[in-house]
Design a protein that fits this description.
Layout (H helix, E strand, L loop, with lengths): L1 E3 L4 E6 L2 E5 L3 H11 L3 H9 L5 H14 L4 H9 L10 H13 L27 H11 L3 H5 L3 H14 L10 H12 L3
Antiparallel strand pairs: 1-2, 2-3
Helix pairs in contact: 1-3, 2-5, 3-4, 3-5, 6-9
Length: 190
């Protein structure tokens, strides 16, 4: 398997051919719905060998779709492998999740969103509030369609670039008021 973490693409042998797998925000959202847990918890389950069938199947299926394969072709490929030992897919599932969540080793690693001030309870099982991504995209002028094609790392870098562009070169950070406003925006309930 050969990850290209800047784009989130992982190339691996799957179904008798070299395939591209990638999980952008849209696929991560579908993956969360299909597995009932957030992507970080899902990666932990896979790494701890405590996974469910849907964890491996859906990660690979959605990774194939995110990598450019049509949904029907990905469904047929996965359905055609019903007798396969799914343990063989666990490494690919872990690597494609890691590529989507962490970004390039040379670049700043994925930053976790700040925890809310306590007024907004966390979602169970490490689930993400995807509404926060939609609101942040709207606030910085990125279309929902464009945002859904990005990995979490890529979207984080877009947000960081937006913040830096608004700093007038005097201060690379947000003012305390701006930090509170952005924190409230990202922590708001969906």
């Amino acid at each position: 398997m050969m990850p290209d973490n800047r784009s989130g693409v992982v190339r691996c042998e799957w179904g008798g051919a070299m395939r591209r797998l990638r999980l952008a925000i849209g696929e991560l959202e579908e993956l969360q719905e299909a597995t009932g847990v957030g992507p970080f918890v899902l990666m932990q389950r896979l790494a701890a060998d405590d996974w469910r069938v849907a964890d491996v199947r859906e990660t690979i299926r959605l990774g194939l779709i995110g990598g450019g394969m049509g949904a029907e072709s990905a469904d047929c490929l996965i359905d055609g492998m019903a007798t396969m030992d799914l343990r063989l897919g666990v490494p690919a599932a872990i690597i494609v999740l890691a590529a989507a969540l962490t970004g390039s080793p040379e670049e700043q690693q994925f930053k976790r969103a700040r925890k809310s001030s306590g007024s907004d309870p966390e979602l169970p099982e490490g689930r993400l509030r995807f509404g926060s991504f939609y609101r942040a995209a709207g606030a910085i002028g990125v279309s929902v369609t464009d945002m859904r094609t990005m990995t979490l790392w890529q979207f984080n870098e877009v947000v960081d670039g937006f913040v830096e562009s608004k700093s007038d070169g005097k201060d690379a950070g947000l003012s305390p008021i701006e930090e509170d406003q952005l924190g409230a925006l990202l922590a708001a309930p969906v």
